[in-house]
Amino acid sequence: MATSLAPSEPDLAATAAESRPARGLIDEINATLPPLAASPHPIPQSTPSVPKNTVSRRLAVWTLVVTGLLVCLPGVATLLGLTSAAIEATQNRPPAPFPTLELRWRGPLPVPRSTSLAAWPAGFEAWWNDRWGFRRELQQTFAAARIAGLTPQALDLPRPGSAGQQVVVGNQGWLFYGGQNALESYRATSPFTVQELKAWVDAFRSRRDWLASRGIPYVVLFAPDKSTVYPSHLPRSVTQASSTTRLDQLLTALREVEGLLVVDPRDALRSASRIRPTYAQTDSHWNPWGALVACSQLLDRPEFAGTTFGGPYEPAHYAIESSRTKAWGDLSTLLDSPVPLTDDTVRVTSRHRDALRVTLGPRSIQQTRRITNAACNSGTAVVLHDSFFLPMLPYFCERFHTVTTVAYADFAAELIEQERPDLVVQELVERSLVTRAPTSLEPIHP
């Protein structure tokens, strides 16, 4: 017969009754104890965790959304016309027009001309770039980063594109022009070939002969680029491939041309820079002080002794003032930086400036000016020049009764024949030796 080990129902009831006194004793003991203090470091309640892959997915989605908005925003602003590129204010040119297609009829269908069709993509790119949304704001941000030195040295050299990228940011607030291969002239990366040098020399020799047959002296003045006079302010990444530049080559060759007067004011400008700056920090040209030094180098020559226009320019005869002012130069305008720039402004007051009466000739590519000095009774001159000669005009015109200037002309034989001046001056900026050759390379026969 099997024996059951489980207690019967009466036994369970008896056991529960016997345990009651023990439980009551425990309750009495607990009642006499002080209550437990709350823990100063409560155990945090567990929260359900978010899987890592879910967080990564959300971050990627938001990154794509923000990136897409930033990419599309300038395009939307362009289409809506909500931004202004300020092309005319900063680059002195109108915005690029929308390109057009020239059509011709081939049977009943209009067909675009091949030349017009090939030029259309570049024209559309220029139109779009000039109207790109927030174009100026983005360029100004980049310009501020360049001034603060936050851009790599690889961006020191100019790059084709916007006008601001043609400005080279040097040290101590100095700006340099990098367009039109201006820095290549200083770096001497492409010296003259034998044929190129001969073409320049032959052109100047033929002009000297043509003018000499008419009894007119001929002087060639080379205006050095700012990088030539102030190389210490260039970025360290701008180095020279050779110490002999194109200007050095040409000057050496022209000194062997008898009867040709050549003016090289580089040493005089460097010496005058020890007194006060000869170039503006934020402009590509020499300032009035540098122009006065160059003018003295031009006319204070033994060949002009005994003439009414020869002789030195004495600084004591001029009121020269210098002050630190807001930047006004062409390079600061091209850079269009939101960071305020300052510059040393030099003012040189000419004693006969009030007596000058300027008469402009007809507007053309070769703009002609006729300047009359009422304080001088003799002397006439014709000047073929670029923008570097403009600061020299007040001082140069002191020595002449009439000065006729032609801007950006290679040679103006017809005008010279008509004027029959006492002197012909041709001024060329140094970088022009890299960007072009004389347009009249054929000899000019008397």
Care to give the gist of this entry?
The chain has 446 residues and is α/β, with parallel strands linked by helices.
Description:
The chain is α/β, with parallel strands linked by helices. The protein has a domain at 182-435. It contains 15 helices and 13 strands. It has helices spanning 9-32, 52-80, 87-91, 114-130, 135-147, 182-187, 194-212, 226-229, 246-254, 266-272, 288-299, 330-335, 393-396, 413-419, 432-435; strands spanning 103-106, 109-112, 167-169, 175-177, 218-223, 261-263, 319-326, 342-349, 356-360, 368-373, 380-385, 402-407, 423-429. Strands 6-5-13-11-12-10-9 form a 7-stranded mixed sheet, with helices on both faces. Helix 7 (194-212) packs across helix 9 (246-254). The longest helix is centred in the first third of the chain and has 29 residues, at 52-80. The radius of gyration is 40 Å and the shape is extended. The N and C termini lie far apart (154 Å).
Cα shape: extended
Mean pLDDT: 81
Q: Whole-Å distance between the termini?
A: 154 Å
Low-pLDDT windows of residues: 1-10, 12-17, 441-446
The strand count comes to 13
